[in-house]
């Protein structure tokens, strides 16, 4: 395509297309390119046909539009621009830095632009400046990290083993002062429990130049034994080979892990013993009304206990596997945090501490999809790897709101695996919380079983919490109720009265189980507790079919039952009435009609 420019001053365009520098001609009135050589087009990642007849705005080549305004201002003022650095955006989205010069020609009709691609030079310049700055602060940075590190850090001669320097944390760990340590060896101080530990460590370091995650036991000056995990590397320090060692005290973590494993094993043994005892006594005690009901509960309770046991086993195994990889994670964290300034590191640590205190929050399905998209967009714009996977993990951990409210930290976390490491540790915290909830659940079930199985019919009453005896029964029937029963608790009082706890539990067991059977385990069960000046009143209501009028007068008679053979003895309500009226000096009454039955038990407070 030939240019039809009526340009008289041809000196500006001699060898235009063959020029080794990028050149272009723009119509000042319209802003349209009227000519551009191959070098200029190559900067923009376009061919000549894509450039001619377009403006810089059309092509979107300016990384910063303010640069265009500066160029136009200089041209208007001086008629030319000389050696102005400007970043331009190519067709593929890459940025190139151009050393731009321009001059208004042909009496103000055209702008002749020329320039040179200095992208590589700028990158080298920036790299050189960064290296110079890094070299300037490296010594101070090393000294600061060494002194202020909360982990125990030491520098020692790799050949002789004599300590050159230690930080304060190292002194605290082994119990010696800095003056007692410098110039001596670990053997002089007798800190290794066995020489094998240090020999194993040195063999690994000499083989690879570094080691990490190795556990060992050391002896303090006082004789106390501490467990540590170490990271070691060889470096050139002050002109000779030096061993840099970092020791992390994991004594408490190791003890806590062992204590947790022991507690889980003991709890598992105890629960298994309970299950075995229940199974063995089921047939023997079936003739007793209380043990007959217990027999109905065995399968349900076993299921209720096995669920938290399975959770405890799974999560404790996860934690055990994770603790075994503790040293590797420490080195990853060290490498990540080493890239930040002290101020940024402290700010990130504060952010992480707040994140670990956030209460997990769940969202609806539609909200979850929207949140995941927002998180994915946030991570993508920050150029963080695996944005979808990170968004999914954050939503599962229930901390999406906190992340979205503190987006200023995301930029600081890119180019390092620190965010993934944080989420892994947060997942471990969630596992610990799940273990705690599972243990609480099993403890509550065991407590209920112990209360229910007690056969104390002593003559002396004892202070008894009415709500606790009711909750014991509801806990045992939880598995039978969760698939179809809506249980409403209306505890308008929490009275403690003189009574027989085991008999009260038997009263609520009969009344609640009768209600569940009447509803065929599908319906609404309402348990209400009220208190007057003289009495405690417990109401147990169901929305079953009701008690037929023809048998209402007989329901408290011994051995009278409407259940199928083998399902009931007819003693249940008779025992309830005897316990309420004779043992507790109270009253029991009921009201029933189709769709509604309520039993009301009144017991004196004194």
Automatic annotation (TrEMBL):
InterPro entries: HATPase_C_sf (IPR036890), HATPase_dom (IPR003594), His_kinase_dom (IPR005467), HisK_dim/P_dom (IPR003661), HisK_dim/P_sf (IPR036097), PAS (IPR000014), PAS-like_dom_sf (IPR035965), PAS_4 (IPR013656). Residues 439-606 form the Histidine kinase domain. It comes from the Bacteria. It catalyses: ATP + protein L-histidine = ADP + protein N-phospho-L-histidine. SUPFAM superfamilies: ATPase domain of HSP90 chaperone/DNA topoisomerase II/histidine kinase, Homodimeric domain of signal transducing histidine kinase, PYP-like sensor domain (PAS domain). Its EC number is 2.7.13.3. Pfam families: HATPase_c, HisKA, PAS_4, PAS_9. The keyword Coiled coil applies. One of its GO terms (molecular function) is kinase activity. Keywords: Coiled coil, Kinase, Phosphoprotein, Transferase. Residues 138-185 form the PAS domain. Residues 250-284 form a coiled coil. NCBIfam families: sensory_box. This is histidine kinase. It comes from Leptospira yanagawae.
